[in-house]
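User: Hey, my collaborator sent me this sequence without any context and asked if I could get a structure. I don't really work with proteins. Can you help?
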Amino acid sequence: EVQLVESGGGLVQPGGSLRLSCAASGFIFKNSGMGWYRQAPGKELEWVSFINDDGGGKVYSASAKGRFTASRDNAKQMLFLQMNNLQPEDTAVYFCAKRTGTRIDHRGQGTQVIVSS
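Assistant: No problem. I've predicted the 3D structure and written it out in C-alpha cell form, which is a compact way to encode the shape of the chain:
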C-alpha cells in the first residue's frame, strides 16, 4: 500500500522559513518522480514543484521559484520542501504526491502551513 505522510507545517511569520518532509512507503521511491502541491482555503489544488527520480531535475511554479527548494533522500525514502521568505499567500495545506508523468497517482493527507503575523 502506497503511503505518503507529510510533516513540518505550522505557523510562521511573514519572511520566515519552514521545511516540509514527506515519508514515503509502499512503492519503489527511487524510481518515482514526486511533486509538491498546495491547496488554499476555497481554492483549487495548485502545483508547487516537481523533482525527478534521482533528484537531478527540479521544476517550480512561478510562485515557488527562487524561494522554495525541493530535495529528496532516496536511501531514506524522504521528500523535502524548503520554503523561505514565506508570505501570507503561501498559507495552504501542502501535499506530497507520487507522480507518473503529469498524473498524480497518490498523495498524502497534507500538512497545514499558516503564514501570519
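In plain terms: The chain has a mean pLDDT of 97. You can pass these C-alpha cells on to your collaborator as they are.
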